[in-house]
Write a structure and sequence with these properties.
It is a single chain. By secondary structure, this protein is mainly β. It has a domain of 53 residues. Helices cover 0% and strands 37% of the residues. It is built from no helices and five strands. The protein has a five-stranded antiparallel β-sheet, with no helix packed on it. Strand 3 and strand 4 form a beta hairpin.
Length: 79
């Protein structure tokens, strides 16, 4: 499963749909069987829509690749 611009989905990706709506991939899940390709991505859209599962990432374009949702980046060593 890949986006329209041929990138593999990852949690934290910012994506855009065909109407220009922006969202964030919050989870990815693998399919069952011998091949462990992605079967589904979960997207939370900026318009306030709850998370929705999609089984076709090719509908979306990767806008930017971020960090995993919920993971915080701090600054170490500063006093």
């Amino acid at each position: 499963m890949r986006y329209a611009n041929d990138e593999a989905p990852m949690a934290g990706d910012r994506i855009k749909n065909s109407t220009g709506g922006l969202g964030t991939v919050t989870a990815i899940s693998s399919g069952s069987g011998v091949r462990s390709e992605l079967a589904r991505i979960t997207v939370k859209w900026d318009e306030g829509i709850i998370e929705i599962d999609y089984d076709l990432a090719a509908k979306f374009i990767l806008v930017s690749r971020g960090s995993t949702p919920g993971k915080k980046h701090g600054t170490a060593g500063h006093s």
